[in-house]
Design brief:
Helix 4 packs antiparallel against helix 5. Strands 2-9-12-11-10-13 form a six-stranded antiparallel barrel. It folds into three domains: 90 residues, conserved putative lor/sdh protein from methanococcus maripaludis s2 fold, CATH 2.40.420.20; 90 residues, Efflux pump adaptor protein, beta barrel domain (Elongation Factor Tu (Ef-tu), domain 3, Beta Barrel); 121 residues, no CATH class. The longest helix is centred in the middle third of the chain and has 28 residues. With 372 residues, the chain is an alpha+beta fold.
Length: 372
Amino acid sequence: MRPIPILTALLTVTVLFLLVFQREWVRDLIGTSGPDATIETVSDAPDAAEDAHVVSVVAQRSSAQEIDSAVLLRGETQANREVALMAETAGRVVSSPIAKGAEVAQGDLLCELDPGTKDVALAQAQATLAEAERNLANAESLSQDGFAAETRVLAARTARESAQAAVAQAERALADTRITAPFPGVLETDTAEIGSLLQPGSPCATLVDLSSIKLVGYVAEADITRVSEGSTVGARLSTGQEVMGNVSFVGRSADAVTRTFRIEARVPNPDMAIRAGQTADILIQTAGRTAHLVPQSALTLNDDGDLGVRVVGEGTTPDETVARFAPVDLIRDTLDGVWVAGLPEETAVIVVGQDYVVDGVAIDVTYREPGL
């Protein structure tokens, strides 16, 4: 039998016995106990208790920056002008129909009605006017020579004016048989079919003007004071197309149900590529604001539910640093963080550990560079 393993086992058992059952004797033997050690432990206790109340946090220094501010809303496109052309007189359509989608110029004939006897009535009115003018000329000539009374001249003049009114009425009635385009545009519907009978108020066609497009949206009452006529507007249509324009109208009366205000912006559309009725995300540029860019994770809530951040503040002594809650207004969310307003020009925002401190708690701050 080899003696070395036996001696090793005995030595191990002895050491374990001394460490477990004779710890105090071992401490006295190696000098870790005694009056000096006790005094040192007691003297360090207050510092340890004081350090236990200091919370370590990470903060980020931030300076206010000027940023562009905007109002974002959802809207749609509308035609610059749209009109439903109606018949003003009764008649049967004698013109060939024009297909919807056709472009027409101002004054182009869309629907022509059978004039019936309207042209005859015009010729009769014109003949009556010619006779009335001759009678007036004769009466004035006789009156100058003293062979006719002044009342005869007045009667002849009245008859001429009545004949002129009759001619104008007959011309208007005849003109009503021709329905023309009041402005350049695109037909949204087919014109009335040939042979169909139109009554006053019957539709001939619907015409839309797409030379420019209106962006229409509704702004919340909290943001309406930030929008004014002439403000620059950008929009992204449902097709992905991006357009630019300016605000042309800001409503003065709120919607009774939604409490929002209608706004309109005009966008050029020379090639008529933008259609009416498309959904659009509208961005209205407003006056710039100063704000801080902070990580989204730095946002927190206080006991009252207010949104804000924890910042590094001064304590009761010059050497003390404590945490403070600062309420903020959320302006914009970006990939790099969130822009908030309501903080001083220069501040240090706690970005790690802000949920473990409250106002007045002493903190040990480690600063990091923005963007890390």
